[in-house]
Amino acid sequence: MLENLVYPSEAMRNFNALLYLPHKEVLAPRVLLLAEKCLGWLAIESVLIMEDLEPATGFRAYLKSLGDNSEAIKNFLKELFLTLAKLHKANIYSRDTDKNLLIKNQNGKLDFFYFDFDQTFFWRRISFRRVAHTLKHFFDKPELNGKLTPQQLKEIIDLYLSELDKPHWKNKLLKSLLKFTQKG
User: Fold this and answer.
1) Which helix (H) or strand (E) holds 106?
2) How far apart are the C-alpha atoms of 76 and 72, rounded to whole Å?
3) Among 21, 41, 88, 178, which is least packed, fewest CB within 10 Å?
4) Given the DSSP bridges, would you call strands 57-58 and 109-114 parallel, antiparallel or unpaired?
5) 59 vs 104: CA distance, rounded Å
């Protein structure tokens, strides 16, 4: 409640992000209802109801479904990271984006839906530190351990940074991520 003295409620921050993302070509669940109980201007209780995206798969479960097929993993990550770059260009960052992502396979076409933006503040700008931190969360998964070659990782990062308009971050970012291509 004290946080709401300075920032909008968690539900309102999510609501604002969910309405903003479609304008940035990023998929997110549709908002069905936002209700807040207020004491003056201060929200003391809030509820946000979004559309149900089931059947959908989380990031780690989808990776597991690809098995050891490094080419399928690379292609999946390329598609994913194109949408992630759009999310980042919209100044949306989260430490747990990999956990707040649902993947729907619509007749062979993958749709990536992002949700849970309670720690999102739109004045935060693209920074190398935020990007590196987010990408490490995606790559530091047992389901990926040793399944990508350094060349495949470079292809994914090249595509992501090109979409993000930050190609000059490539060498530094690859250096921090290459350890996730090693078998272990």
Assistant:
1) strand 101-106
2) 6
3) 41
4) unpaired
5) 11
